[in-house]
Write a structure and sequence with these properties.
The complex is a heterodimer of chains A (299) and B (343). By secondary structure, chain A is α/β, with parallel strands linked by helices. In chain A, 34% of the residues lie in helices and 22% in strands. Chain A has helices at 15-25, 31-48, 67-72, 135-140, 150-167, 189-194, 228-234, 253-267, 285-298; strands spanning 2-7, 54-56, 76-83, 90-96, 128-129, 131-133, 143-144, 172-177, 196-201, 217-222, 235-244, 271-277. Chain A has a 9-stranded parallel beta sheet with strand order 5-2-1-12-11-10-9-8-6. Chain A has a 3-stranded mixed beta sheet with strand order 3-4-7. With 343 residues, chain B is an alpha/beta fold. Chain B has one domain (6-63, 107-131, 142-342): TIM Barrel (Alpha-Beta Barrel), CATH 3.20.20. Chain B is built from 12 helices and 10 strands. In chain B, α3 (30-50) runs parallel beside α12 (322-342) and α11 packs across α12. The longest helix of chain B is centred in the middle third of the chain and has 26 residues, at 144-169. The chains are: A alpha/beta (299), B alpha/beta (343). The A-B interface holds A 12-13, 15, 18, 21-22, 25, 63-64, 81, 83, 86, 88-92, 246-249, 281-287 and B 78, 80-88, 90, 93, 95, 134-135, 137-139, 183, 186-187, 218.
């Protein structure tokens, strides 16, 4: 079986960056300095992940998976802290009164009181993928005015994602779905014609949403092998989440390869993208780094 | 004689800087004991001035944080680093890498000191087994249930120790233990584990009043549903945070689900009491006496029996400055005394 690997989503900050952010919040550090440190930390991260096939921006400059969108799109503001699924980590609930346009030039470094500093992604590293929250997951995990419908919201947000990806000159996008609430995945057809879409499904999968799709995702990456059929039928490269981002136990290459052999024998899959379940920010940085190493050895 | 509503602390109170700044570097030394005791005495004085009936353990000056305090005193829990709670706030989350056992008592030393320093009623908060399990990485056990039950055994041992210490002191009143379980309702499908682990922690103890403290639950009804299955005498819960700050209201939305609690409680032969959170520990606004009175009266209107109501802040007040914490407690006690006059 040919294995490709993916690392996506918020990656744990190093102690250094965490402490510098603390200093920034106390007013004893400048945003200029933080920007430099983030750039350096990202470079180190990309260096460390060399050998991984697909890597998204580690979002060191964002506090949660929705924050970049909440702050850069008109009609969305930051609400109270809410529990992220059933974890002990909290995010600021997006408050959606309408869905306007992208209100910022995402390449410009702007400062926010709540989340310094911008830009959304740093595009000085080639081959780094932008990552966005799956629109209907975001919708269901937000506080939304009744006049904003889910489908209308999703379609408009996907257009915004397309524009942002365009600005970053990226032909590939990772869409991360924390919650299985999406309706009909046909809404991705237009975006899939201009970008290669990697869809990461975090929770149990709503199989009905994929019925009669008239296009294929570049990859659908599922949380459990029981959904591999769906990934195989609806994407060019199926993917499977195998490393646990909610447990510090380090998986071994041997056990993962054994599992892959079983999958190959059962499904006949010859190409598979392997990644982690949920993003890595639920782990201490040292453990996340060790899991990346394991993933690299899978190739 | 007019009925009395007991006022109580929930647990933590902001540490004085001389303790908080040094805490980690001196923990386990004589200086840690001396400074924690000094801070306890000072905090007890604050509670006395506010007029609290039950002073908890003097604001938990011997503890840094509810998870870490226990986890550090247990074998086979490894700390690999910090994990994010929110924004740039992080906490130490331990990994269970083998069978955890108590290295030492979690709270005996603290209880001994508090007993020396006050004659008032004491309530000892202990982090519960389910929360310890939920807030740890589980590298060792096959299931979350198994790990929760192991922590329940450790909590049980701890309570045994505290009971011995209590009896040895010759205190006549009942020992009060408050199990702190903020994780209680975060996994609705695991309420059976919650119930089993809590009951196991309290198994076979007599002469102890057990309460459960839960806060910031999305839906208390899933907790109320299992009240009949658990051996607690009362529930100290957060309500003010979900309530409006408007003083005169016919309906107080933060307290409305007490109606559901009452329907469950009415089915029980031995009624459970509610420790009513009436002041929000997440805001600096000091709620007026009038607002707090309104909240208490609204809750009394639902629960009907004042003997089933105690009055407390939503949660530990360590999130606020000592000055604001004091002001909040003072208004809470004054409002309670005012309500008593009309009962």
């Amino acid at each position: 079986m040919r294995i490709e690997t993916l690392i996506y989503g918020i990656y744990p900050r190093s102690d250094r960056l965490r402490l510098e952010y603390g200093r920034l919040e106390r007013g004893v550090e400048t945003t200029e300095k933080i920007k430099d440190i983030i750039r350096e930390e990202k470079s180190n991260f990309y260096q460390m992940t060399k050998g991984i096939n697909f890597v998204t921006d580690p979002l060191f400059n964002w506090y949660d998976v929705f924050r970049s969108i909440s702050l850069s799109v008109d009609g969305i503001s930051l609400g109270p802290l809410r529990r992220y699924l059933e974890t002990n980590t909290f995010y600021r609930e997006p408050e959606i009164t309408r869905l306007g346009e992208l209100k910022l030039d995402v390449l410009e470094p702007l400062e926010f009181e709540d989340n310094p500093p911008f830009p959304m992604f740093q595009n000085d590293h080639r081959g780094v993928l932008p990552i966005f929250p799956e629109p209907s997951s975001m919708y269901s995990m937000s506080s939304v005015s009744p006049e904003v419908g889910e489908k209308e919201f999703s379609l408009k947000l996907l257009k915004i994602y397309d524009r942002i990806a365009g600005q970053f000159n990226s032909g590939q996008i990772v869409i991360f779905s924390p919650k299985a609430t999406y309706q009909n995945m046909e809404i991705y057809k237009e975006l899939s014609s201009s970008r290669q879409l990697f869809l990461v499904l975090n929770e149990s999968v709503k199989e009905g949403s994929f019925e009669n799709l008239s296009f294929k995702f570049e990859s659908i990456i599922v949380p459990d092998k029981k959904y591999l059929d769906l990934a195989q039928n609806n994407s060019i490269k199926p993917g499977l989440q195998m490393l646990d981002s909610h447990n510090t136990r380090i998986e071994t290459v041997e056990e993962l390869k054994k599992e892959l052999l079983t999958i190959e024998n059962a499904t006949g899959i010859k190409n598979l993208i392997v990644t982690h379940r949920d993003y890595m920010d639920f782990l201490p940085r040292t453990i996340a780094d060790r899991k990346v190493k394991i993933l690299k050895e899978m190739n | 004689m007019a009925a009395k509503l007991i006022t109580q602390e929930i647990g933590s109170f902001r540490k004085p800087e001389y303790l908080s700044k040094k805490f980690h570097s001196i923990e386990g030394t004589q200086e840690y004991v001396d400074l924690s005791q000094k801070a306890t005495v000072e905090t007890l004085e604050v509670f006395d001035r506010a007029g609290l009936d039950n002073i908890g353990v003097g604001g938990e000056m011997f503890r840094w944080e509810m998870y870490e305090h226990l986890a550090k005193r247990v074998t086979n829990i490894e700390f690999y680093g910090l994990v994010r709670s929110f924004d740039n706030r992080y906490y130490k989350k331990g990994s269970v890498i083998g069978v955890p056992e108590r290295k030492e008592s979690f709270h005996r030393e603290e209880l001994e000191h508090v007993m020396k320093d006050t004659n008032k009623s004491i309530k000892v908060p202990i982090t519960g087994a389910y929360t310890m399990m939920d807030w740890s990485f589980n590298e060792h056990y096959r299931s979350r249930r198994e790990l929760a039950m192991k922590f329940a055994d450790l909590i049980h041992q701890e309570i045994e120790d505290l009971q011995k210490t209590w009896k040895k002191s010759g205190r006549r009143e009942q020992l009060q233990i408050q199990i702190d379980e903020p994780a209680t309702t975060t996994h609705p499908s695991e309420m059976d584990i919650v119930v089993e682990s809590m009951n196991r922690s309290m198994e076979k103890f007599r002469d102890i009043e057990f309460t459960l403290h839960v806060c910031y639950s999305k839906d208390y009804r899933i907790l109320y549903d299992v009240v009949p299955d658990m051996g607690f005498h009362g529930y100290n819960l957060e309500y003010a945070n979900r309530d409006s700050l408007i003083v005169r209201k016919e309906e107080r939305e933060g307290y409305d689900d007490l109606k559901y609690f009452k329907t469950v409680n009415d089915t029980l032969k031995e009624k459970r009491f509610i420790g009513l959170g009436v002041t929000d520990v997440h805001i600096d606004t000091v709620e007026s006496q009038e607002l707090i009175e309104n909240r208490i009266n609204y809750a009394l209107g639902i629960l009907e029996d004042p003997s089933l109501v105690r009055i407390n802040p939503d949660c530990g007040l360590r999130t606020r400055s000592r000055e604001i914490g004091y002001e909040k407690l003072l208004n809470m006690v004054r409002a309670t005394r005012n309500v008593e006059k009309d009962m």
